Amino acid sequence: xxxxxxxxxxxxxxxxxxxxxxxxxxxxxxxxxxxxxxxxxxxxxxxxxxxxxxxxxxxxxxxxxxxxxxxxxxxxxxxxxxxxxxxxxxxxxxxxxxxxxxxxxxxxxxxxxxxxxxxxxxxxxxxxxxxxxxxxxxxxxxxxxxxxxxxxxxxxxxxxxxxxxxxxxxxxxxxxxxxxxxxxxxxxxxxxxxxxxxxxxxxxxxxxxxxxxxxxxxxxxxxxxxxxxxxxxxxxxxxxxxxxxxxxxxxxxxxxxxxxxxxxxxxxxxxxxxxxxxxxxxxxxxxxxxxxxxxxxxxxxxxxxxxxxxxxxxxxxxxxxxxxxxxxxxxxxxxxxxxxxxxxxxxxxxxxxxxxxxxxxxxxxxxxxxxxxxxxxxxxxxxxxxxxxxxxxxxxxxxxxxxxxxxxxxxxxxxxxxxxxxxxxxxxxxxxxxxxxxxxxx
Length: 442
Ligand SMILES: Cc1ncc(COP(=O)(O)O)c(C=O)c1O
What we know:
Blueprint: H1 27-32, H2 36-46, E1 51-52, H3 65-77, H4 79-86, H5 95-109, E2 123-127, H6 128-140, E3 146-151, H7 155-163, E4 167-174, E5 177-178, H8 180-192, E6 199-205, H9 218-231, E7 238-242, E8 268-273, E9 284-288, H10 291-305, H11 310-321, H12 325-351, E10 358-359, E11 367-371, H13 383-392, E12 394-395, E13 397-398, E14 414-418, H14 424-441
Parallel strand pairs: 1-12, 3-4, 3-6, 6-7, 7-8
Antiparallel strand pairs: 2-9, 4-5, 8-9, 10-11, 11-14, 13-14
Helix pairs in contact: 3-11, 4-11, 6-10, 8-9, 12-14, 13-14
The structure holds pyridoxal-5'-phosphate.
Residues 56, 128-130, 154, 205, 210, 242, 244, 273, 275, 280, 285 line the site of pyridoxal-5'-phosphate.
């Protein structure tokens, strides 16, 4: 097991100057050089004929055009609000939206705002939730520090950790999310080998996660907080709960957050976003922070941007106040549930008879996770990916990207299929093409 802790990510631990860089670039530039995300985005833009079962984008047909038009008009019609929206704001973000988000959060948790046990200053608005993930990691992680992550996990987050020269250590997870006994075993093993002080963060995507759309079971949420607090003896190990897909539930009932089990509000950072449930173009995300993290996070954010776009924050506040937001989310759930059904049906139709091909039909989120028989290489740079993109013109996210750890331990037989961006008919066509590529590989 300990072998997994050395060189735990093959991206990022080389602290030497790369050949040919002649010392021009910082170590962080070197650690961040990966290019996978850029490649995927570019492929999608350069090859519109390629069906993207890869993109985590939301469905363009569902984007809230009418609601945004109306909210913009109402916002600009109110002169003082319009001036505030067009002005610099504070680093923490527009008070108006933060007050509303307190109510929004209380609604999600099923409690009153008083019962939340926080004040609006613990709520920080960010440029998408991605910025919070990144700034929080910058706040906590030095090179060689350790972040424990569910395995598999959101691959862009792995890039953030690697970009700081820190190590992502995978924790086994199943259909109920991160396995708490594996987390505990890993923490104990790290303590035994003297590395516990290096552990600064545990990262989980709690609801309908990326890439598998599985949710952390409710009892595990409480256990997660308990175990982490038990191992936070010398310093607080923080939990980063990424709830990017929280609102996108179709058959499942929403769950209380991991954050809600942190009674003292001191160990869990809750990251949420309006990207998936409203519009990613607005880039409005928010974090609920333990009090001691508010200053450190906003100090770093201030250096970066002195606050995210006020305009978008006021716009979203207006959409919520004017009752334009919630009906949109209801419609969205119905659309995505139907697309999920179509993708799942297509997978059954085209791959149902292939032995060893397995997939999870999710109760929420945007992805279907598929595994191929062991030994089939669906990974980045592998033959299936090349065949799918070059010959069949269909793209998926190679599952190996979503696993932390060195090349030799990362499984390469997983695929993430998204039902976010394509139309139902193209989803079906995409699976038909992908199935041809898979059959050819087998
Ligand atoms: C799990 C997860 N977290 C965070 C994000 C970041 O989203 P945004 O910055 O748009 O809020 C994404 C985007 O796809 C995601 O899948």
